[in-house]
Amino acid sequence: MSVVLKPIGIADVALVDKILDGLQEYSIRVDGVTKMTDGARHLLAATPDGYDRNSKYTFAIMLDSEPIGVVDVIRDFPARSTAFIGLLGIVESHQRRGLGRAALHAIERLARRKLAASKLRLAVVATNPVLGFWQKMGFHETGEVRPYSGERVTSTAQLLEKTLE
Fold first, then answer.
1. Distances in whole angstroms, Cα of residue 41 to Cα of each of 20, 36, 49, 99, 119
2. What is the count of structural domains for the chain?
3. Do the beta carbons of residue 100 and residue 44 sit within 8 Å?
4. Which residue of 16, 69, 118, 120 pairs with 61 in a disulfide if CB–CB is 3.0 to 4.6 A?
């Protein structure tokens, strides 16, 4: 079973919107709503302060020709040689099949080869019980915890990091 990362951009709002329809449990946990208002456009366009769209890479996660997830990565954030995963989401109907792991491996290859990254970082919102998955994937806690505000959820986000080999 192999997944492919298909580059997408702002013109692919409808595709991302369809993928987000399959991530309602995630959205309820981190945003408090079944779907974030204008979530697809936000996922495709939003960047951290001081970063432009050229720093952001967004991909549909494809299984054969079927979009089963989405991932966005920011190059050199928060520091040079670090790639930050904003969201890696596999639609709920395809979870627990190893597809998240396969997508992460594809992201790691992309981060090393295309983004010249030696580290991956991400944040796990406390209301989203996925910390164990990321730890199994080799991520460790940095000790940094930041406030998090979803559409109707206020929580914290724990930062994790993984050194790429």
1. 11, 10, 17, 24, 27
2. 1
3. no
4. 69
Instruction: Please check the confidence at residue 118 and state whether its pLDDT lies above 80.
Output: yes
Least Cα distance to 16 among 63, 61, 83 occurs for: 61
pLDDT tens digits, 80-109: 999 999 999 999 999 999 999 999 999 999
Least Cα distance to 162 among 90, 102, 99, 104 occurs for 104
**pLDDT value at 36 more than 90:** no
Mean pLDDT estimate for the chain: 95
Q: Is residue 140 part of a domain?
A: no
Q: What is the CATH number of the domain that holds 47?
A: 3.40.630.30
Provide the residue range defining the domain that includes 62.
3-118
The secondary structure of residue 129, as a DSSP letter, is: -
